[in-house]
């Protein structure tokens, strides 16, 4: 029987899994794999500039294509640089398979050069992680990794590859089937439970759908819209669930939670049945637990049993894939009498519509509105902070517009690499990222990747010279003491006791140009439209648009961390 | 904040692989669950290990623990021992040092009462072996600490298996 090296088997396995793109950064322990990849043309190898950005790129690729994102990095620092990206993907249920190099087996435990116990380090932030200790296990482990990553609640899987195992000759067979006795993801829907839940829904006077990221991940949007329209039950979403139903749909109320719309949060407080799908009731959406949905019976559909009744006690739990469950629902549901309830919600919307105070120069809302107007089809990617919450509040997400972000972990530096990964996976779709000036600088080196990969992404920077979200908390709860949030602070400001500040750095326009990208700076609202028009014309390289934003812009409404609706701050 | 706070037991079938013990114990430390004792050993199938875990938790946390264990790829099966008939014992060694002759007499009496074995004997020391429930072992340790000047204790953690007939602990 033909024998091949582990390195060859790995590349064969990737091809059999249908991998088209691999995000990789080389090193001593993976150089043989790089060599095997060099010899083939089926898998495109993207070389980012930092392993953290590398995982985010694979992550965004996975989120926007539905395929498994594949990473290859070397041992030691290459592997540890994955940590933040793995945690990001784990939190937001993104399927990744990450290969890390490892020193040869006889060196493991010797504090060898570039040796770390990466499986141990990432144990709590991966869905599964394993070191391949025997060459004959390699094929099976890779097969299982792809299966585990994409099934059930998706997540990142890490495979650690000792260099000597990979050089060893062994079977050329890549298994066809998977059988893991401890891992049997749920593939059915408990019809009895579902019927009980539907009965509650039909009987309720104030029923409400709460859609989380699970609806988007499962690709259940279309069938969910049908169920919503058939039942006439209003919908609120989490930030990750935005777009579960088109945001311009008359039955969509808004996002709930810390920066949720007033009407959406009121609806949760007043509903008598909360029918939730694919959310884990994170503290940012529930606020104080005992005040959350106080009058409601709660139905919870989730693929992950551990997400059910963890934060919120649920009356009817249903463990199922969102799409399977909603598809079954569509067969049984009938129209609910919600006219009165919908009128109440409309009244709340009218009382406190979601809006920002107009700014004569330029408000973030002007920019987001322009994106909404100019793009009928797009993938929006955000970084983390004020701009993220504003995009989550105001971006129109429809069938043809998608929004991705680091929702659970809140990873700054996700925006730019996220846009790169999304564009690589969706070359024909406009990809627009929005970052703050803080987050943009956390992975700015990826401009090189974007230029070299010829990705005409539009990377927007909302530059307010501050770490805006933390500043917002300081403004509201810390007596305007802006410690550590002023991005112009430095030696001069310390020397002059805050009387003088250095000039802002970097000059993002020059920086973009130095990378070979296009740079545009916008300071007035009348120039926003033209900037996007110009960016659209630039089809070979990325365009960076820096918007100069007033640092006093705030994200409202806001419910204090751990607070209740009574603590909601509307504006001040 | 009681909500059914009590000691509970779980029996786990897990893959007999490197890192599994660390993953399970890491779940308890990472998520802030109490881990009272954990024993592990291989079974009749060398690829499978079985663990007995004791934890003090309330109802909700315990439900979470079971779910979190269940979703681990390496965990094959989770059995809740709290409310089913099981046989469960823990081994306990107590070495009593600086014994007077009177102490030794007393120790033999204790051994008889608790059905313990005196398994080793020195000029002024005695080694006792108890195989009984962890709760009874707790009582023994408390008693011995009060009665004797210098003792050395080592405990194995409970191991349990479902009963065949209806038998408790």
Automatic annotation (TrEMBL), chain A:
Using the record's annotation, list all stretches that form the Thiamine pyrophosphate enzyme N-terminal TPP-binding domain. Answer: 6-120
Does the keyword field hold Hydrolase?
Answer: no
Cofactor(s) required for function per UniProt: Mg(2+); thiamine diphosphate
CDD domains tied to this protein: TPP_AHAS, TPP_PYR_POX_like
Domain (Thiamine pyrophosphate enzyme TPP-binding) ranges = 383-546
Do you know which InterPro entries this protein is assigned to? Answer: Acetolactate_synth_lsu (IPR012846), AHAS_TPP (IPR039368), DHS-like_NAD/FAD-binding_dom (IPR029035), THDP-binding (IPR029061), Thiamin_PyroP_enz_cen_dom (IPR012000), Thiamin_PyroP_enz_TPP-bd_dom (IPR012001), TPP-bd_CS (IPR000399), TPP_enz (IPR045229)
Reactions this protein catalyses: 2 pyruvate + H(+) = (2S)-2-acetolactate + CO2
Q: Per the UniProt record, which EC number(s) apply here?
A: 2.2.1.6
Q: Which keywords annotate this record?
A: Amino-acid biosynthesis, Branched-chain amino acid biosynthesis, Magnesium, Metal-binding, Thiamine pyrophosphate, Transferase
- The record's top EC class is transferase
Concerning Gene3D superfamilies, the annotation shows: 3.40.50.970, TPP-binding domain
GO molecular function per UniProt: acetolactate synthase activity; flavin adenine dinucleotide binding; magnesium ion binding; thiamine pyrophosphate binding
Cellular-component GO terms for this entry:
acetolactate synthase complex
Query: Which pathway, metabolic or otherwise, does it act in?
Result: Amino-acid biosynthesis; L-isoleucine biosynthesis; L-isoleucine from 2-oxobutanoate: step 1/4; Amino-acid biosynthesis; L-valine biosynthesis; L-valine from pyruvate: step 1/4
Q: How is the cofactor bound?
A: Binds 1 Mg(2+) ion per subunit.
Give GO terms for biological process. isoleucine biosynthetic process; L-valine biosynthetic process
Q: Which PANTHER family match?
A: ACETOLACTATE SYNTHASE CATALYTIC SUBUNIT, MITOCHONDRIAL (PTHR18968:SF13), THIAMINE PYROPHOSPHATE ENZYMES (PTHR18968)
Its recorded name reads Acetolactate synthase
From TrEMBL, chain B:
Provide the ACT domain boundaries.
Answer: 9-83
Name the domain of life: Bacteria
Tell me, what is an example of a GO biological process annotation in this record? L-valine biosynthetic process
PROSITE patterns reported for this sequence: ACT (PS51671)
Q: Tell me the enzyme class.
A: transferase
**What is this enzyme's catalytic activity, as reactions?**
2 pyruvate + H(+) = (2S)-2-acetolactate + CO2
For whether the record's keyword set contains Metal-binding, the answer is: no
**Sorted alphabetically, which InterPro entries does this protein's record hold?**
Acetalactate_synth_ssu, Acetolactate_synth/TF_NikR_C, Acetolactate_synth_ssu_C, ACT-like_dom_sf, ACT_dom, AHAS_ACT, AHAS_small-like_ACT
**Keywords, alphabetical:** Amino-acid biosynthesis, Branched-chain amino acid biosynthesis, Transferase
In its UniProt record, a GO molecular function of this protein is: acetolactate synthase regulator activity
What Enzyme Commission number(s) apply to this enzyme? Answer: 2.2.1.6
**Transferase is among the record's keywords:** yes
Q: Which GO terms describe its cellular component?
A: cytosol
Q: Copy the pathway line from the protein's UniProt record.
A: Amino-acid biosynthesis; L-valine biosynthesis; L-valine from pyruvate: step 1/4; Amino-acid biosynthesis; L-isoleucine biosynthesis; L-isoleucine from 2-oxobutanoate: step 1/4
Q: What does this protein do?
A: Catalyzes the conversion of 2 pyruvate molecules into acetolactate in the first common step of the biosynthetic pathway of the branched-amino acids such as leucine, isoleucine, and valine.
Provide the family line: Belongs to the acetolactate synthase small subunit family.
- Tell me how this protein assembles: Dimer of large and small chains.
Protein name, as recorded: Acetolactate synthase small subunit
Q: Gene encoding this polypeptide?
A: ilvN
